[in-house]
Design brief:
The complex is a heterodimer of chains A (about 400) and B (about 90).
Chain A (H helix, E strand, L loop, with lengths): L5 E8 L2 H10 L4 E7 L2 E6 L1 H4 L2 H8 L1 E9 L1 H8 L3 H18 L4 E5 L6 H10 L13 H11 L3 E9 L2 E8 L8 H5 L1 E4 L4 E10 L1 E2 L6 E2 L4 E4 L1 E5 L5 E6 L3 E17 L1 E19 L2 E5 L9 E11 L5 E20 L2 H21 L3 E11 L3 E13 L2 E4 H4 L1
Parallel strand pairs in A: 5-7
Antiparallel strand pairs in A: 1-3, 1-4, 2-3, 6-7, 8-12, 8-22, 9-11, 9-15, 10-12, 13-14, 15-21, 16-17, 16-19, 18-19, 20-21
Chain B lengths: L1 H15 L3 H4 L4 E5 L3 E5 L3 E5 L3 E5 L4 E14 L3 E14 L1
Antiparallel strand pairs in B: 1-2, 2-6, 3-4, 4-5, 5-6
The chains are: A alpha+beta (about 400), B alpha+beta (about 90).
């Protein structure tokens, strides 16, 4: 469909050249003039066509319209189709209806209360996707949410477009007494090892430096006996044990790397699918089976949003399936050593991330024709930070 | 007599370096390969067929012979001819 309106006409007769010259003289722009079997075909605008009347008379030719193209003629043709005019209004109506419904929930400021918990709460209150925005009892929701979760100190619920925005602030739980501090909480050993140092801030120490303790043994008890004047115990105060107790213990390492191994070799063949999800429903397109025996799948989410305000819970994932075959390979000793070193560094990094100090490292690498083994022992120093309720330990 | 006048005016225009197309009404012909011709300063079309096109200009006639000749643009100002052009001839 062309945007500019063009009429294709066929001119026949004795004096077509005269017709052409008269058109030129009257400033009628002609284009694409062709002569086929003494019939002249040409394009001109509909406005110019209405100026042809006198020219046709003068030059004594016959003019016939062959084809009409352009947006004006297209609209005239479509005018017969009622749906053509109804559809834009229908679209606008659908858009308006959609904008009156809830299509998203945004939660921010929550830490201990997870998004799932809030979603469950909303579900209990009858809030679901697709419900009319006018039927959401915002004030009631605020009150009920604060009543259900004591940790919430401030909550704001409002509608932003078709989204329900929930912003909240939670109380810092460490400032308030919890069930554990009333009952008493013990500090226990993380692992079996030797106690290196003891520093108690709250509670009663049950171990001394140099003592060997088992994993789970109580190091600091979460109760403090208050003696009476006569030396007897007047009362026992329960508290959360607090202190620094460092344990030194060995950590065995054993990693075996087989020199012969199976590796993925990608054939370069790929297959693409689109995965559509609407809430919990999922559809794949195209529907055909994946034509590979073994494959890796990489999915890239394409978030589908008409507008930022009108967000719809429809997501499209582009899944790319990469075909591969398994091939037997053999590492060289150098390669295997490098892998072993990487594994050891990974273990050390993960231990250090937990706040564990490595005092001593004694690791050996042995190789033979079939495998490479990494064996040894690390000596670790760790601050105990595991707690257990007084009753649980007893 | 007419030739003398023409020669004189041509001499004056050459001396003053004035545009010939404006003062003498000479046609301007631009050709792209053997497929396109753009003609300006012409009077009208005398004959148009797929293999021949005869154009009347102010001072002479231009005859274009070729194959599948098509007038892509035709208005007062310019005439654009497309097709396979074999020959371009000036007739007195």
């Amino acid at each position: 469909m062309k945007l500019n309106n063009i009429l294709e006409i066929c001119v026949s007769g004795e004096n077509v050249e005269r017709f052409l010259n008269l058109c030129s003289f009257h400033d009628i722009k002609l284009s694409n003039i062709t002569n086929i079997d003494n019939k002249y075909y040409m394009d001109l605008s509909p406005e110019d066509f209405f100026k042809l009347k006198n020219i046709v008379k003068k030059s004594n030719v016959k003019v016939k319209i062959i084809r009409k193209s352009g947006i004006l003629f297209w609209i005239k043709r479509q005018a017969k189709r009622k749906l053509f005019f109804i559809t834009p209004f229908l679209c606008l109506l659908l858009l308006w209806i959609n904008s009156q419904l809830l299509w998203g929930v945004r939660i921010e400021g929550n830490h201990s209360i997870t998004n799932d918990l809030i979603q469950d709460f909303l579900h209990e209150q009858g809030i679901h996707y697709g419900m009319p925005l006018s039927k959401i009892p915002i004030y009631e929701l605020k009150t009920k949410l604060r009543t259900k979760y004591n940790e919430i100190t401030w909550v704001s619920i409002y509608l932003e477009g078709t989204n329900l925005q929930i912003s909240l602030k939670e109380r810092d739980t460490s400032e308030f007494p919890t069930a554990s501090s009333i009952q008493g909480e013990n500090l226990i050993a993380n692992a079996t090892g030797i106690v290196e140092s003891v520093l108690v801030r709250q509670g009663t120490a049950l171990v001394s430096p140099g003592e060997v303790v088992e994993k789970g043994a109580v190091l600091i008890e979460g109760k403090v006996p208050i003696p009476d004047q006569d030396g007897s115990i007047k009362e026992i105060q329960y508290c959360k044990a607090d202190g620094d107790i460092y344990l030194v213990y060995p950590y065995a390492i054993e990693e075996i790397i087989n020199l012969e191994h199976v590796e993925k070799k990608y054939t370069g063949k790929t297959y693409q699918k689109y995965i559509f999800t609407w809430n919990d429903n999922m559809w794949e397109f195209p529907f055909f089976k994946i034509p590979f025996l073994k494959y890796d799948c990489v999915t890239t989410p394409l978030t589908f949003q008409f507008f930022k305000i009108l967000s719809i819970p429809l997501t499209i994932h582009q899944a790319t399936y990469q075909d591969y075959i398994l091939v037997r390979q053999k590492y060289t000793i150098e390669e295997a050593e490098k892998i072993a070193e990487q594994k050891l560094n990974k273990i050390i990094a993960s231990l250090e991330e937990k706040g564990v100090q490595i005092i001593e490292k004694n690791v050996k690498i042995k190789t033979n024709s079939a495998y490479l083994s990494l064996t040894g022992e690390l000596t670790l120093k760790e601050r105990c930070n595991t707690f257990a309720l007084l009753e649980e330990v007893q | 007599m007419k030739n003398r006048e023409t020669n004189l005016s041509t001499k004056i225009i050459d001396t003053c370096q004035l545009p010939k197309d404006v003062l003498l009404g000479a046609s301007i012909i631009s050709m792209t390969g053997n497929t396109d011709i753009l003609i300006e300063n012409f009077k009208n079309i005398i004959k148009y067929q797929t293999d021949v096109l005869l154009i009347q200009c102010k001072r002479n006639r231009i005859q274009i012979t070729g194959k599948n000749l098509k007038l892509e643009q035709y208005n007062k100002e310019e005439l654009k001819v497309c097709g396979i052009i074999y020959e371009l001839k000036f007739l007195q």
